[in-house]
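Chapter summary example.
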Amino acid sequence: MDKTSPRKGRTTPSGTIAIEFKGVKVKIPKEGLTLEALEEMIFDISRGIGQKAFVDALEGYDRQLAEERPRGMLKNLTKKTKYLETRIGEIKYRRTLYQEKGSGKLRYLLDEALKISKNQRMSLRVLEIYGTLAALEAYRKVAEQVGSLLGIKYSHEAIRQNVIREGQRITDQESKELEKIRNLDIPPAKEMHEVVYTETDATYIRRQRKGKRRGKKKRHFEVKIGIQYTGKEPRYQGGKKAARKLINKRVYAEIKAGRNKFLEQLSYLGERDYGLSMAKKSYFGGDGDGWIRAGQKEYFPKAEYLLCTYHLFERLRQALPGRGEEQKRIKVLFEKNKVPEALRRIQGLAQRSTQEKEKVLLLDYYGYVRNNINGIESSMRIRREDRERSAGAIEPAIDKTIAHRFKGRGMSWSERGASAILKIRQTIENGEWKDWWYEKRDKKIEIRGVLKPLLTAKALCKRQDIAPYVEMTLPCLADGQDQSKPWAYVLRGLTRGNLLKETLNPKG
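The structure predicted for these 508 residues follows.
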C-alpha cells in the first residue's frame, strides 16, 4: 500500500525514499572567464547541491521513520544536530532522539537504519580514502591533497585519530584470527604447496616520546617483519630475467609483540595460508641474528635455514672497509661453499692486523660466520642450483612496508600511531584493503547489490520502480533559510532554462 508524504504531497511506495535534483542554470559573465575559474565554480555548485540533497534525504527519511515507528513504545524527545564528513563535504542535519518507554534507553532510529555509529564523524568511504593516503603520506599532506581533490577541509589531527582507530580495528581482528588458529578453530589451508619460503628481519624507527628502560633512554622501538611466499616468477612477460616477483606473497609486521611471539604468530599464519607443516620443502631465511636462528629451530623446525647473502656480504664490506681485494677473495670462498677456509682466512687477517678497530671488526665477523655456518652452506648450495631460490626478498619488503613511510627525514612516531599505520600498510601490501572494507570489517561498507548501475536523468524519469528512490526538493530553490542569498538566486535560474528541462521533464 502506498503512503503519501504530508509535507511534500506526493505518493511514494512504502519502504522507499526519494531524492530529486532540481535543474540549475547559471549565468556567468564572459569577461575574464578562464577554464579553471569555470571548473572551480561548477565544482562548488555541484557540491552545494549535493549537500542540500543529502541533508534533505536524511531528514526526509527521519520523518518517514517517525511515522512508521511502533506506537506507544518510543517517546519523541527532541531533535539533535549531527555533523558528518562525506565525499561531497561536511553536512549538518537534524534527526529525532527517542526514549524507550520502560527501559529508558535513548535511540536514534535514523542512525540505526543507516548503520551510523554513535560517535561516527565521517562516512566509511571517506575514512577508506584517508586510510589509503595516510599509509603513503604524512597526515598534513593527506589533508592538503584531499582538500584539493574533493574540496573536503578536515584537520590533519582529526584524520590521524580516525586512521589510528582504523588500524587498531585491524589489529584487534587479526588478534582474534590468530587466537582461532592457535586453538585449531580454522579450516585447513585451501592449497598445499610444494615449497614455502619464510623470511624475517627487524628494523628500528624513531620514537616520538623518549621513554626509559633499565635506566637508559629508549629513543627507538623495533619493528619486526616477515614475508612468506611459494616461489618467484617473471614480473613482466618477456621482460628481463632479473625482474622477478614473489608468488602468493603475504607480509606480516608487528611492533608490540616480542620477538618470540612474533615468530610464533608468523608460523600460525604460515600454517593457515600455506599448510606449512605439510609442505614438501620449507626454507627459513634471515640475517643471522641469534633470535632468528633460535626462532627457526623452535617455530619452524622442518625448515632449512638460509642466511641472507645480502647481509653476509654487506657485513664483509663493513669488516674490511677499503680492502676490496681481500673482500673478493673471501667472497669467492663463500660462493664456492668453502666456508671453513673462509673462516681461517678471516681469523688470519684478524691475527695479523695491527689496527685495534679492524681487529675487533674482523673478530666480530668471524663469530657471525661461525654461528651461521649451516645457513651459509645451505644458501650457497641453493645459489648454485637455482639462484632464484635464494633468500633476500625481505629487504625490498622492509623498504616497501616500513622505510618508505616511517623513516622520512625528521619523522618520529608514537608506538600506537606507528602500529596503526603499519597494519594498514600490511593490509594494502597483501591486497586485502578492499576486502577489509567490504567483507571483513565488523561495520563494513554495504553498497554491493543494493544500488543498481547509474542511469541517465531521462531514464530515471521513465522508470518509477527503481529502488531506492526518494522525492526531495532543494530548500534553496523554493524555500528555506538560504532562499534570499545571491547564490540561491543564481541556482533558481536553471529551472527557467532549457539545460535539463527535456531530460528531467520529458513530458513538458
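To summarize the output: The longest strand covers residues 195-213.
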